[in-house]
Amino acid sequence: MLNSILVTGATGTVSSEVVKALAGRGLAVRAGVRSIDKAAPLQAFRPNVQPVELDYTRPETVHAAFAGVNRAFLLTPFTEDQVAIGKQLVAAAQQAGVQQVVLLSGAGADAQPGTQINHWHREVEVHLEQSGLSYTVLRPSGFMQNFLTYNGVSIRQENKFYLAIGDGKVNYIDVRDIAAVAATVLTAPVASHCGQIYTLTGPAAVSSEEVAAALSEATGRPISYVAVPEEAAVEAMAQAPDWLRNGLLELYRLYKAGGANWVTSTVEDVTQRPPHSIEQFARDYRSQFAS
Ligand SMILES: NC(=O)c1ccc[n+]([C@@H]2O[C@H](COP(=O)([O-])OP(=O)(O)OC[C@H]3O[C@@H](n4cnc5c(N)ncnc54)[C@H](OP(=O)(O)O)[C@@H]3O)[C@@H](O)[C@H]2O)c1
Known about the structure:
two-stranded parallel ribbon
């Protein structure tokens, strides 16, 4: 499929919504999946969406996936080698002569002292900035969907979620709003958003008690927040690799200290509609929180 938009990590939380948003606009999308047997959920979007094998450990699939593409959404997985993967994807876009790249980064990527995870994002951003490609960087805050992916099991099984962030307020964003921004940028004239860095948040920073209240209201059963001390979080992550445990602890400390208690208007500025609130998120995903 020539002249299409490539979306990497298309089976993931953010990119699956980017695929949906682009397909909804009737565009030809090449959906990069680690292996074709994982592409079944994308069938619903045929014929606009064409799955393509894109395994970062197999360079031949990377080059084939980028061939003939003119715009690309690049997402690195949350792994220790995400910088190497990001640079690999930027190089593939350069080689293929891609006209526009949208890179998924993280809020505070250039903050100092910042966090290790954000330093990794910044390293990929700099690589992209120096590549000569036309680019737009999206720096989203923490995802509302983390309550499904990371906290979903305890919410479904115990009606509780555990976090070591005290009463820190967090500017969570619904990934559907990240996707809406990405789709807007990827369908506008390339020059419109070229060189922009968009920091994306939800409409309000909310406490974990407020998240619990939204989930309780949406599901009709009491769901509570358990504020755990950092030592308990360390113990719970005893089996996790150091980079992951330390990275999450840095993030929890930032949240606890109020480092995510702010918002931007960028989602609305770019898409002309307000971002989803935590209450709307909870209502829309109610069935996935069912016990
Ligand atoms: N969670 C947050 O609150 C938050 C906030 C800001 C920024 N971020 C950033 O968002 C990114 C993660 O996004 P996400 O949550 O949407 O990720 P995700 O749901 O974990 O999806 C990652 C995608 O990458 C694919 N992938 C992983 N390793 C691969 C490989 N070797 N070859 C090909 N594909 C591979 C996965 O494929 P499979 O399905 O086959 O595994 C999946 O499609 C990270 O860069 C993170 O730092 C996250």
